[in-house]
Structures are given as structure tokens and as C-alpha cells.
Design brief:
Length: 322
């Protein structure tokens, strides 16, 4: 691996734990946020267990949007959106190392991507503007995502979170905004044609992520990394034989390292939803209203084109259950 590529990968892995207040533009912003990663607090224990058990008859179903969306700057009194409006900014947990979804652009020191654009859409719907003064981005690791929602450290997490029944017991999810698939990435010189080639061998994914279970089900030995980007470095250095996670992530890795390839069919559906506290169903409905507007307009194609996404996987049809 070339030195410049390795530098980018290590930087992305370190920054993924940093807390970012807005997005700066100074030339040393990437360095400062990387150093800030060392001081990011670990998540506190969850404040309590869910009081009810969520049924998962339709895993991706979410709360129906309100009959009419409130005007920006005029959030309903007593709503969670009104509390965000009074604070003056939305706090969103995001990724800083996932190319085209949420990644730190070293050219301008800003976190950019499809999911960041969704955060901006939420801010615009609340404040009438997506100015950086109206949102704060908090870069999280996989283990931090749900605890930060449950503890109220963030209002929402938009960070490639797979909707699973287990997670729906802990937080609420919006409707699906991206429908990824779990696949396998290997070095270009590998003869493997799918996950079946790695029985008893080391296959990497983010620790505590949904793909870990799928890897184990196929007889491979799962290796959990702090962040998905760490898996690429591990494979390049021979510590793991393959990576199996969301194709949205793997395509980014392939773009960063052309000496890799995707093999085999989809192993599992990986629907992404925004994670929101179960204490704020009104905000879940509001977020679904914002997503519904995006589906109804030309935003779906524009976002797909801007971030080089598969159009059919972006903002798929919504399912509602209440």
C-alpha cells in the first residue's frame, strides 16, 4: 500500500471517534479533529431498559409522518423539535470515515456525504436553513451510536445503522433511507468467490455491527474492528483474509484501494434508518415527514448522482405501522 493511502486510512480511523462542533475550513482542521479523538468520552451506561417489547412483524416499518408538516421556525409547542429550535441547533451523530456517506474530506476539513446531507435536510426543516450554525456533527464509533441516542447526547444518529429487531428494542428508527446489502471484499489476487471460501478463516467487520453475526453464521471467524475502515488496513497488512460488511462501505474501500474486489452474492439485507430516542416519537414522525418530502421530489436522483450511490437503494419506499 502506498504511504499516502495508508495516511488517509489511518486518519479516517482516528477521526471517527472525534466530536465535531460544526465544520471548520482552516487548513489544520483535520489535525485538530484527529487530536480531539483522543479526548472523546466513552458512552455512559444506558439510562434504563425499554418499558415495552417492540414486535418486529415488519422490521422496517416506522411511525407515520404528521398530516401536515410544521413550517420551519414554527415547531409545535411542547414538541421535541421545539426544544431543538430553542437550543438553536440540531445535534447529529455521524460517521467520519465512510466514503460518500459521512467522511472527513482532507481537502477542506469538513465531514461530507449523503448522510450529512440528510442531517442538513432535518436542520432546514426545523430552522428554515441548513447553515452550519444550525447543526452540530458528532463523529461516533459503532458501540457509541445507540447509547448516545438513549442518553440524549445527540438528537439523532445518521450513521449507516442497520435496522434490526434487537436495536428496535432500544431506539426508534425512521423509515429506511438506504437499502444496502452485505457482501465480501477480498484482495484482487484472491481466488475466493464468496463467503464460503473463508470457513474457519478471519473475516473482518466493525465490532458490535450486524455483519459480525452473519459472518459467524457462514462458518468464518469474525474479527471485530473499532471502525470498518480499520478492516481495510487489517486486510492490506494480512491480519484478516477478507472483509464482509455493507456494500455501501465496501464500494468506498474499493475506491480507496483498487487492489481489491467484491465477490459473491448478497448475504443479507442491510436497511439503514435514522436512530432516535423512543422518548421522542414526535421527532420520529417529523423525520419521516422530511424523508417523505425527499422521496416525492427529485432529491432522490440528485442525492444518488452527487454521492455516486445506487439510485434504487436510495430513499426506498416507506413502510408505516402507526
Amino acid at each position: 500500500m502506498s504511504r499516502p493511502l495508508r495516511h488517509v486510512l489511518v486518519l479516517a480511523g482516528a477521526v471517527a471517534a472525534a466530536t465535531l462542533a460544526g465544520c471548520g475550513t482552516s487548513s489544520d482542521h483535520a489535525l485538530r479533529t484527529t487530536l480531539a479523538a483522543l479526548d472523546t468520552p466513552a458512552p455512559r451506561a444506558a439510562t434504563g431498559s425499554p418499558s415495552i417489547t417492540v414486535r418486529c412483524t415488519d422490521l422496517t416499518a416506522s411511525l407515520r409522518p404528521p398530516g401536515s408538516m410544521p413550517a420551519p421556525g414554527a415547531m409545535p409547542s411542547g414538541s421535541y423539535m421545539a426544544a431543538i429550535q430553542r437550543r438553536g441547533y440540531l445535534i447529529a451523530g455521524v460517521n467520519a470515515g465512510l466514503l460518500d456517506f459521512g467522511y472527513l474530506n482532507p481537502a477542506n476539513g469538513q465531514i461530507e456525504g449523503f448522510e450529512i446531507d440528510l442531517v442538513k435536510q432535518l436542520a432546514r426543516a426545523i430552522f428554515g436553513s441548513d447553515s452550519p450554525s444550525h447543526y452540530r456533527l458528532v463523529a461516533l464509533t459503532v458501540p457509541q451510536r445507540l447509547p448516545f441516542v438513549q442518553e440524549g447526547r445527540v438528537d439523532v444518529v445518521v450513521d449507516a445503522i442497520t435496522i434490526t429487531c434487537q436495536r428496535k428494542q432500544q431506539v426508534d428508527f425512521s423509515t429506511v433511507y438506504y437499502d444496502a446489502k452485505q457482501r465480501v471484499l477480498v484482495p484482487s489476487n484472491s481466488n475466493a468467490t464468496g463467503i464460503g471460501a473463508f470457513v474457519g478463516q478471519r473475516v473482518c467487520a466493525s465490532a458490535q455491527s450486524a455483519p459480525i453475526t452473519v459472518i459467524q453464521q457462514h462458518g468464518a471467524t469474525p474479527v471485530g474492528a473499532p471502525q470498518a475502515i480499520d478492516c481495510l488496513v487489517d486486510m492490506q497488512e494480512g491480519r484478516v483474509e477478507a472483509i464482509s460488511t455493507d456494500d455501501s462501505i465496501l464500494l468506498g474501500f474499493k475506491a480507496q484501494d483498487p487492489n481489491t474486489k467484491l465477490v459473491g452474492p448478497s448475504l443479507a439485507d442491510v436497511p439503514y434508518g435514522m436512530a432516535i430516542s423512543r422518548a421522542h416519537p414526535d421527532f420520529v414522525r417529523f423525520a419521516n415527514g422530511v424523508l417523505a418530502r425527499l422521496r416525492a421530489g427529485d432529491a432522490r436522483q440528485r442525492l444518488s448522482d452527487r454521492w455516486h450511490l445506487v439510485p434504487t437503494d436510495t430513499l426506498p419506499p416507506a413502510h408505516y405501522d402507526g
